[in-house]
Design goal:
alpha+beta; Glutathione S-transferase Yfyf (Class Pi), Chain A, domain 2; 10 helices; 4 strands; GST_Omega/HSP26; Thioredoxin-like_sf
Length: 235
């Protein structure tokens, strides 16, 4: 297989999903840092949305959207470790719960961060905790990962965001997942995912993550966020 490029951004949880997928599969790729706030012609040429991740193939062909990238990486090698199960029903379950993450967990993550009123923040916290409780209850009892012993797509979809619970949501909004039986499996899941071999190399310094997300939390102009990313990247 010819080497492909992964257009990524060190601070972006969506891009981190594809980065983890490549490392989990053990496939060769070239990491290319891109600041999606700059919308460079090079980035627009491979993704008209100007976002990362983007997998760039020979001849300039490209694949984008994080969940699509994960599935594409998995299908590049049918013989090795599988990110999605082969069974049609089990694959459907993975896609369903990946969609649950995108629709029920990721939106309140950003909504809580953007909310400036304490009352609104608290309301969003409760909603997010309910969705995390649903996710926790669905984790396979054999654990520690979502589908059991194997790290897979659902884990990749949520892990980049759970890594930011501490340096972002806890730091700015005092959000924590209670250490109760209701979230017992979720805490075990986080411990396993955050120390998984294909995840660890993708983890950015907490201080840098906090510094970047401050601009979201304090509702600063997008141009300030773009400048901050460039400045913090050089630290």
């Amino acid at each position: 297989m010819s080497k492909v490029k992964l257009y990524c951004a060190w601070f972006c949880p969506f891009a981190q999903r594809a980065w983890i997928a490549f490392l989990e599969k053990g496939l060769p790729f070239e990491y290319v840092e891109n600041n999606p706030y700059e919308k460079t012609p090079e980035l627009i040429a491979v993704n008209p949305n100007g976002l990362v991740p983007v997998i760039v193939l020979e001849g300039g062909r490209s694949v984008f959207e994080s969940s699509v990238c994960i599935e594409y990486v998995d299908e590049l090698d049918q013989e090795g470790k599988q990110i999605l199960p082969r069974d049609p029903y089990e694959r459907a379950q993975v896609r369903m719960w990946s969609e649950f993450i995108n629709k029920k967990i990721i939106p309140p993550f950003y909504q809580m961060l953007a909310a400036q009123e304490k009352e609104k923040q608290e309301k969003i916290k409760l909603a997010l905790l309910e969705h995390l409780a649903t996710f926790s209850a669905t984790i396979d009892d054999s654990g520690p990962f979502f589908s059991g012993k194997s790290f897979g797509m659902v884990d990749m979809m949520l892990c980049p965001f759970s890594l930011r619970f501490g340096p972002v949501l806890k730091h700015f909004r005092d959000f924590e997942v209670p250490n109760t039986d209701r979230y017992r499996k979720f805490h075990k899941w986080m411990d396993a995912c955050h120390t998984h071999p294909s995840v660890v190399p993708t983890i950015a310094d907490d201080r840098k993550i906090t510094a970047v997300y401050r601009y979201y939390a304090e509702n600063m102009p997008m141009s300030d966020t773009a400048d901050a990313v460039k400045r913090i990247s050089g630290l």
